[in-house]
Design brief:
79% of the residues lie in helices and 0% in strands. The chain has 2 domains: 78 residues, no CATH class; 51 residues, no CATH class. The chain contains 7 helices and no strands. 13% of the residues are buried.
Length: 148
């Protein structure tokens, strides 16, 4: 058992991906088989992730949630900036010029207005929080545009 914990500690990020992937798979399976797809598997996975983070923080008395448990240290590495960057790339990979073309002029206008509104909103919130340099403003604006 001690050797297994050493392997998990040495490969923390991989264990984090495995844990998140397993949670997502099981949530999707539960959604399809038990709930007949009425609640999306991603919503169940997010909810369970929040619950596990809370339980992990209470269990250890720490402030990093599930990442306070040594076996799940990689979940903490996976979170934060790495997850943000991964989400941005995944969103960009999901963009399809064929679908944008099919949506026509109205779809293109909607896309542009949506991007502008959320980017400007993100920049405005960043400005209100005290960020003043262009890199931070652009990063937060792009993050808001990606996630919203």
């Amino acid at each position: 058992m001690e050797e297994l914990l050493k392997v998990f500690d040495k490969n923390a990020l991989i264990v984090g991906f495995l844990a998140i992937g397993l949670l997502t798979y099981l949530s999707d399976l539960f959604s399809r088989k038990v709930l007949n797809g009425r609640i999306p598997g991603s919503a169940i996975a997010i909810f369970l992730g929040l619950v596990l983070g809370y339980v992990g923080g209470v269990f250890t008395g720490g402030d990093k949630g599930l990442a306070d448990i040594p076996v799940f240290h990689g979940v903490g590495v996976l979170g934060g900036s790495m997850f943000r960057d991964f989400a941005i790339v995944a969103t960009a990979m999901g963009a399809s010029f064929i679908l944008i073309k099919k949506s026509g002029l109205l779809g293109l206008i909607s896309l542009i207005i949506g991007i502008l509104i959320f980017f400007i909103s993100g920049v405005a919130m960043a400005w209100l929080w005290g960020y003043r340099n262009a890199v931070s403003l652009a990063t937060i604006g792009a993050g808001a545009c990606t996630f919203i």
